[in-house]
Write a structure and sequence with these properties.
The chain is an alpha+beta fold and about 220 residues long. The protein has one domain: Ribosomal Protein L22, Chain A, CATH 3.90.470. Helix content is about 30%, strand content about 30%. It contains 5 helices and 11 strands. The protein has helices spanning about 25-30, 35-60, 115-125, 125-135, 140-155, and strands at about 5-15, 65-70, 75, 80-90, 90-100, 105-110, 165, 170, 180-190, 195-200, 205-210. Strands 4-5-1-11 form a 4-stranded mixed β-sheet, covered by helices on one side. The longest helix is centred in the first third of the chain and has 22 residues, at about 35-60. About 35% of the residues are buried.
Amino acid sequence: MKLGDSEVHIWQVNLDEVQLHLLSADEQVRADRFKFEQHRNRFVAGRSFLRSLLSQYLQTDPLSLTFEYSPHGKPTLTQSRIQFNLAHSQHLALYAVTYDRAVGIDLEAIRPVEDLESLVQRFFLPSEYRAIQADHALFFQYWTCKEAFLKAIGTGLSKLKELEIENAQLKVIPAEARSQNWHLQPLAIHDDFAAAIVIEQNCPSLDLQSFTPKNFPKSLPHPE
């Protein structure tokens, strides 16, 4: 797979259709900890697809890839220009791949939320609370926007109230991220899901491209 310097590739995958098993020893240990078979199978599919995907950009063996993890659990490849992030909800997964820039992606199935008001009061700023109260459908849009940004900068939910979203745009961001430019974009994935991506804007323009497993080169293994 070719990846241009300004490109950001976004892959959408149905984990229930992935027929791969490409896990490292520590990933297999994590898989074995799942109590429910469906959750275990989706974890195996998600990690295996990640390895298969990255190996195609790097033209290497999927099982040769090694990952490092930030204190908040964000994975990165060791000694590579490739930057990536992933998210999954129910059977769907999203993967973002780019060169030399921070990226975060988030995905949430739209569903009823128990005690929505207290949840919004706890994690959202007053302006966001008012917007969501006026239109409850905004909850998952705002949540995925905020979560994608926090994943891009590699921090945890403790920074949620240092980040303000307005009309699906970044209005206020944490102080430690203000030296960089950021691009936030909600993603139209499916009517039943909300999604967003945040990318470090370190070039004049970014080229976002969407893919599915059907775009895999035929000469390489893919989940069909």
